[in-house]
Design brief:
Strand 6 (160-167) and strand 7 (173-178) form a beta hairpin. By secondary structure, the protein is α+β, with helices and mostly antiparallel strands. Strands 9, 10, 11, 12, 13, 14, 15, 16, 17, 18 and 19 form an eleven-stranded mixed sheet that branches. Strands 1-2-3 form a three-stranded antiparallel sheet. 28% of the residues lie in helices and 27% in strands. It has twelve helices and 19 strands. The radius of gyration is 23 Å and the shape is globular. The protein has helices spanning 37-51, 69-88, 90-93, 96-110, 139-150, 154-157, 185-190, 211-214, 218-233, 241-252, 256-264, 368-386, and strands spanning 3-11, 20-27, 30-36, 116-122, 128-134, 160-167, 173-178, 197-203, 272-273, 277-279, 286-293, 296-302, 308-314, 318-326, 344-354, 357-364, 429-430, 443-447, 450-456. The longest helix is centred in the N-terminal third of the chain and has 20 residues, at 69-88.
């Protein structure tokens, strides 16, 4: 997660109280909440009480007198570093104390009272699942409510996640982010005040071997089938005419498992496709469509000569990556027009092009943070698999009555038959490159007007030897 405090605001106190400075906390490039110094101090003291002074990072000291603009800026930088340090600590960042603070602050910032509401969650086939929740219910609560409505077994809930998406003109979805444990889904989507933004349920893993677990149950099979059909219809999975004929035949026979088995053999199965953006590889200013899946970032690059090439950057050859966010300078005081500046986001990763040559590759995209989250989740999944663990997760029922579960289940409808394949889906010319990693939590810092979050990979470059990659042929291991 990319935490930053890029701006401050001077706000009037309630009931004629003195004005105060508010610090705008952004998560993944978006305003999450607006808090006072005293609120963050309260969080710090609670963390110290629970985990000890030796574990919790240093907190900016109190000041007796009113802060000057320079001191406000200094405190902003210190608070930003503090929030980043807490979040990056496995114990503190995953604690209920920290996450509940962020959820409460988000709700207070948006001034949404705690009350019962009906939230619509989309499925991949366009079907809407309506769940009754509280506005203060966290992401796990909402996911559990959706799973209950669909009658999805507890031990399969962990294979799915909720994503914030934006509907595009062609009916497809542009992914904004995966909803996290420190946010309230209802508040996150309604605070955008735009009906194009919706919450969708999709599988949250990358390795297609886990499909077998999901297909063990009728509801899991239906969800996976609906997502696969949707990805094919939107061109995320490429099919030729013969493959399309076979898929349509299986669909007509309602052979869902066989349909998925065939789809697993197709190009880009299980990938997330991102909006067109810009990269500096192989040349600066190249337009590219990036897809994430199969432990790689796939590039479909339009070169300056209009030639289109394709290649993949394997996550196991990325030494590290970073996300940067920058806001254009303006002549007004800090925070004078909060939220109105256009934020530029970039994802850059250092890639092992050959045995002794590393090179930075940069992607400039509003979805840079979502791309970073995808890379991190690939790392996490590989590490779980390497340690012999399982991503299967049992969701425990809440016994305090905080979450009301509906007794009525909702069936997942089968999608309509596939349309004819688009001729433009034929394979393109090959381009290939690949990568490596090293382990540590993301380290973030601020450089002037630049917010920076970086991650090193948990795989050492000394663990494997690689051949020289070539643009015109797939990379081969030595």
């Amino acid at each position: 997660m990319h935490f930053s405090i890029p701006e401050t605001e001077t706000r009037a106190g309630d009931g004629g109280a003195a004005a105060y400075v508010a610090y705008n906390i952004h998560v993944n490039g978006v305003l999450h909440c607006r808090v006072r110094y005293s609120q963050l101090l309260g969080l710090h003291e609670q963390l110290r009480k629970e985990y000890g002074a030796n574990v919790v990072p240093a907190f900016p000291p109190k000041k007796i007198f009113t802060l000057t603009p320079a001191e406000v800026e200094q405190r902003r930088e210190q608070l930003e570093k503090y929030m980043q340090a807490v979040r990056q600590d496995p114990t503190l960042g995953g604690s209920e104390t920290f996450n509940s603070f962020l959820r409460k602050a988000q709700q207070e910032t948006q001034q949404i009272p705690t009350e019962e509401v009906v939230l619509e969650v989309l499925l991949s086939n366009g079907q809407k699942v309506k769940v009754t929740i509280l506005t203060s219910d966290q992401t796990e609560d909402v996911l559990e409510a959706v799973a209950s409505k669909l009658d999805l077994p507890d031990d399969l809930v962990g294979y799915f996640s909720l994503f914030l998406v934006r509907e595009t003109k062609d009916g497809a979805f542009s992914f904004v982010r995966k909803l996290q444990e420190f946010e309230l889904p209802y508040v996150s989507v309604t605070s955008l005040h735009n009906p194009e933004f919706q919450i969708i349920l999709r599988k949250s893993y990358w390795d297609s071997a886990y499909d077998d677990d999901v297909m063990e149950h009728r509801v899991g099979l239906n969800l996976l089938y609906a997502q696969t059909v949707s990805d094919i219809e939107h061109g995320w999975i490429l099919v030729n005419k013969e493959q399309h004929r076979q898929l349509k035949s299986l669909q007509e026979k309602v052979s869902k498992k066989e349909f998925i088995r065939l789809a697993q053999t197709l190009k880009y199965y299980g990938y997330l496709k991102f909006d067109p953006c810009v990269t500096d590889f192989p040349e600066k200013g190249c337009h590219v469509v990036v897809s994430a899946g199969n432990n790689e970032l796939n590039f479909q690059v339009r070169l300056p000569n209009e030639q289109i090439k394709e290649g993949s950057f394997k996550v196991t050859r990325m030494r590290c990556w970073r996300v940067t966010s920058s806001v254009p300078m303006n002549n007004g005081p800090s925070g004078s027009s909060p939220g109105k500046s256009e934020v530029k986001l970039e994802l850059a990763f250092e890639y092992l092009m050959s045995k002794d040559r590393l090179q930075w590759v940069t992607i400039t995209s509003p979805q840079a943070i979502m791309l970073s989250i995808c890379l991190q989740s690939m790392v996490d999944e590989l590490m779980v698999k390497k340690s012999g663990g399982s991503i299967r997760k049992m969701f425990r029922r809440r016994v305090n009555g905080a979450l009301r579960r509906s007794d009525s289940q909702q069936a997942v409808k089968s999608p309509p038959l596939l349309d004819s394949p688009d001729a433009s889906w034929e394979p393109m010319a090959k381009l290939s490159v690949s990568c490596v990693w090293v382990h540590q939590r993301p380290q973030a810092k601020r450089v002037g007007e630049l917010g920076l979050s970086s991650m090193t990979s948990p795989f050492s470059t000394e663990q494997a030897h690689f051949c020289q990659p070539a643009w015109d042929q797939p990379l081969q291991l030595c």
